[in-house]
Amino acid sequence: MAFLAAPARRQITQDARDGEAVFQTIGCESCHTATLRTGRSDVAALDRQTYHPYSDFLLHDMGSLGDGIEQGDAKGNEIKTAPLWGLSAEPTYLHDGRAQTIEQAILAHEGQGRAARDRYRALDAQSVARLLAFLRSL
């Protein structure tokens, strides 16, 4: 899987560009980090490459959004941040598919995701539309 290409993005409209700013402003990027760089690798294709997963790949306390499974260092309320790349191709959302819409997935965030969720709830309709346009472009 290390050699699979990242999912292609859909067309990036002005609303999607504006939505990315909303994404950053409300704090989503604190866990769903846009840009990462690989470390040193003997495989040239993986050596110090910049990529855009929209994830920090870290465990976060997600409160009731957790699945209750304890594995390794992960407690039942902790989930590794899912990458958002390829989001436009997903039929359901969240780690267990419980959300049918992107908005349901955002509103389900608890624990460390609660503050961003609450800022999302406070957005005006135009900002919500732009944020969703951005997320659908991934």
**What is the second-level CATH architecture?**
Orthogonal Bundle
Poorly predicted tracts of residues: none
Major sheet size, sense and barrel closure: 2 strands, antiparallel
Strand percentage: 5-15%
Enumerate the strands of the largest sheet in spatial order, edge to edge or round the barrel: 1-2
The top-level CATH class is Mainly Alpha
Secondary-structure element sequence?
A: HEEEEHHH
Number of helices: 4
Q: What topology emerges from the helices and strands here?
A:
Elements: H1 14-25, E1 36-37, E2 50-51, E3 59-61, E4 78-80, H2 102-107, H3 114-121, H4 125-137
Antiparallel strand pairs: 1-2, 3-4
Question: What report would you give on this structure?
Answer:
The chain is α+β, with helices and mostly antiparallel strands. The protein has one domain: Cytochrome c-like domain (Cytochrome Bc1 Complex, Chain D, domain 2). The chain has helices at residues 14-25, 102-107, 114-121, 125-137; strands at residues 36-37, 50-51, 59-61, 78-80. The strands form two sheets. Strands 1-2 form a two-stranded antiparallel sheet. Strands 3-4 form a two-stranded antiparallel sheet. Helix 1 crosses helix 4 (125-137). The longest helix is centred in the last third of the chain and has 13 residues, at 125-137. The mean pLDDT is 94.
